[in-house]
Amino acid sequence: MRIAVCDDDPRGQEQLEEALRGCDPALSAEKYLSGASLLEAAKGEPRFDIVFLDIYMPGENGIDIAKSLKKISPETGIVFVTSSSEHAVEAFALYAIHYLVKPVTPEGIKEALKRLHETRFVYRERITFKSGADTYTVYTDRICLAESDNHTVDVLMADGQRLKVRMSFSELEKKLNGNFLRINRGILVNMDYIIRMGKETCTLQNGIKRPVTTRHNADIRATYDDYVFEKLAGKSKNDIKGGGKQWRIF
Q1: Which of 58, 42, 40 is nearest to 50 (CA)?
Q2: CATH classification at residue 140
Q3: What is the pLDDT of residues 52-67, one digit of tens each?
Q4: How far apart are the first and last CA of the chain?
Q5: Are residues 224 and 168 in the same domain?
Q6: Would you state the torsion angle of the CA atoms of residues 52, 97, 40, 24, taken in this order, to the nearest 10 degrees?
Q7: Within this chain, do residues 40 and 88 fall inside the same structural domain, yes or no?
Q8: Which candidate among 54, 74, 82, 246 keeps its CA 20 to 30 Å from the CA of 67?
Q9: Cis status, amide bond into 25, omega within 30 of 0
Q10: Strand residue runs (E) in 19-161
Q11: Residue 207 CB neighbour total at 10 angstroms
């Protein structure tokens, strides 16, 4: 297993590696003092299996480093390590598998490795639909946004590709899984791509903003908070489960 630790503080690097050895004496990590050096190393083979990344480093933002790392190696598991949980929601929007607050413990490392294993072997749902003369089969977790457009639906993929799907909005809504939330009439967003849920606007990773209905705003924001809580703690504070369907508010 190829493991990396990126932290501008050598003491922080050593403490994390101690936690790694406390979890499994056979584990060791490559150490990087800057995001630039980490990203350069990430281009090598084999790719990193998991990276423990400090969010706060002089002149660098761990969130931005993670975005670049995902472009280089989408399958690398990212674990944010920091002294504050301030960026937890934004971290999970980048598919971070875990978020550890210093000091890191062997138990925290064990949970991160467990989540890495689960993400690699989890079944990924797919959906097939017609767009123009072509038929597409895509992973639902790569769909960021779906919007009604008369009798078709505009679907935005994570890589920026836009597809005009020959399907009604309600039909597509039924086929999508519990990651999707209807924030307004004819607008479905994948909650894994949300970086900010405001009172009037929902902002996605790619900067796209969509209006949130004022009538159901409180319920929508509460539902999103519950979803994020599941990501952080492994379960909802109200034991809410998607059940394979959307978190439908209206």
Answers
A1: 42
A2: 2.40.50.1020
A3: 999 888 888 888 898 8
A4: 46
A5: yes
A6: 40
A7: yes
A8: 246
A9: no
A10: 30-32, 50-54, 56-57, 60-61, 77-82, 98-101, 126-131, 134-139, 143-149, 152-157
A11: 7
